[in-house]
Design goal:
Largest sheet: 8 strands, mixed
Helix content: 25-40%
Strand content: 15-25%
Order of helices and strands: EHEHEHEEHEEEEEEEEHHEEHHH
Strand order of the largest sheet: 3-2-1-4-13-6-14-12
């Protein structure tokens, strides 16, 4: 069973670290296929070919000044899919545990007993590099599910439908039915890419909300797992990074700068939740369940902005 691994990378020095670690730790590496969108200063096509994976890596290079953010890049990455069975979406700075592929497949098959269309997703635990540049992490307890909940300091109002979310521990020996997902870790059937394509008009904030509610209203169920066989390298909050798409050194050189893209995305999210739901488009609400159903499940009342 083939796994399509969607990787949208932006000037990331860890792109090849991630691909190699993913392959090295997989129980069945020959079943992995990568769709890589490399937003960078120069193409790394030769290095990609040097991996010796042939057609199992579909690589697209786009100059970093010609890109429009993570949602746009992930939309392109989805277009590299070629009928593989499963989707794993990750960030390009990810570390894996041994046998991560068979573990996720096993979790998925167990969830299929509960849901016709399950999604495994949450914010992964962190890893870092030690003084010798070796990856290190603290192995988490598997007694808790890492559930995603709205941050208490975030709210809805007439001009804003974008919420911030955080991961919280919930005592559980099995995945917990949730209502929010993490763009940096999604594992599910590849049908997801056809039914819930990435909205390229979003920028960064609101990406996960859009995916979550659009998936739910199309009959997909999100599960926050208690075992996450991969780890994420997080940037420090509030710290300036030149590898942020909106960094001033590059943003002002684009035809559409970060400020414009953020404003456009904000309007897009407002329309999804407060407007016409983008009905009639591939990026709108589904018809299997309603937005009111989502509000009842999650406790996030978009309709009344509470």
């Amino acid at each position: 069973m083939k796994i399509f691994i969607s990787v949208a990378s932006y000037c990331d020095e860890l792109l090849f670290f991630t691909i190699k670690d993913c392959l090295a730790k997989a129980a069945i590496p020959e079943n992995l296929v990568f769709g890589v969108v490399d937003q960078n200063e120069a193409s790394q096509k030769d290095a990609i070919e040097g991996l010796g994976l042939g057609a199992r890596v579909r690589y697209v290079f786009i100059n970093k000044l010609d890109t429009f953010g993570v949602s746009w890049a992930r939309n392109v990455a989805f277009s590299l899919w070629d009928d593989e069975d499963y989707l794993l979406q990750i960030d390009s700075h990810t570390l894996f545990e041994e046998g991560w592929d068979t573990n996720l497949l096993k979790q998925y098959q167990e969830l299929k007993k509960k849901s016709a269309k399950p999604i495994i997703s949450t914010y992964p635990y962190a890893f870092s590099f030690d003084e010798n540049n070796n990856p290190t992490f603290k192995e988490p307890s598997r007694k808790y599910a890492l559930v995603l909940r709205p941050h208490p300091d975030t709210s809805l109002n007439e001009d804003n439908a974008v919420l911030r979310f955080r991961a919280e521990h919930q005592l559980s020996d099995e995945p917990v039915l949730g209502y929010h997902l993490a763009g940096g870790f999604i594992f599910t059937s590849a049908n997801f890419m056809q039914e819930v394509p990435y909205d390229p008009y979003l920028y960064f904030h609101g990406e996960e909300q859009s995916l979550a509610v659009r998936a739910y209203t199309r009959g997909w169920d999100i599960y926050n797992p208690n075992y996450i066989p991969l780890y994420h390298l997080y940037k420090k909050a509030g710290e300036e990074h030149t590898t942020h798409h909106w960094h001033k050194s590059t943003s002002t050189k684009r035809a559409l700068d970060g400020a414009y893209l953020r404003a456009r995305a904000k309007k897009r999210v407002l329309r999804l939740f407060y407007g016409d739901g983008l009905k009639g488009t591939a990026y709108g609400l589904g018809e299997v369940r309603s937005l009111a159903d989502f509000c009842a499940l999650s406790g996030i009342d978009y309709i009344n902005k509470k």
